[in-house]
Amino acid sequence: MNSITLNEFVDKVYCLNLKNRTDRMIHMDDQFSIIGVEYERFDAVNGRDLSEEEITVCHDDFKTKDQARGAQGAIKTHRSVLKDAIDNDYEKIAVFEDDLVFCSDFKDRFEYYVSSVPNDWDIMYLGCHYHACPNP
Length: 136
Description:
By secondary structure, the chain is an alpha/beta fold. It has one domain. The protein has a three-stranded parallel β-sheet with strand order 2-1-3, sandwiched between helices. Strand 1, helix 2 and strand 2 form a beta-alpha-beta unit. It starts with 5 loop residues before the first helix and ends in a 20-residue tail after the last helix. The model has no long low-confidence stretch (mean pLDDT 86).
């Protein structure tokens, strides 16, 4: 198989980021630069700015209202990204959050995953929790 990059595989690469977390965007600029990926910063919804009515829906699933606010902010952000992709007729997108660290062999792993995924895939999850990944 020919080598393929993330930007060649998807129509758009998004990075979700709260406006006030410029430190995380500096980090993400570095991360994307290392793997040679062009991306668009996407303004994340801050759960702390949501009304009581907006967070009450999911509060019972979380220990605190702060967790519920964060979850609702994340849900609203992901919905907004999907709406943007639909509005722009993107067929394939990549969505990254602003606290990731790409593994040192991301390009090789990505090529392997792309070559292994069936043609009718819906979601390709490329992440892991930092406790579960031995080598970032």
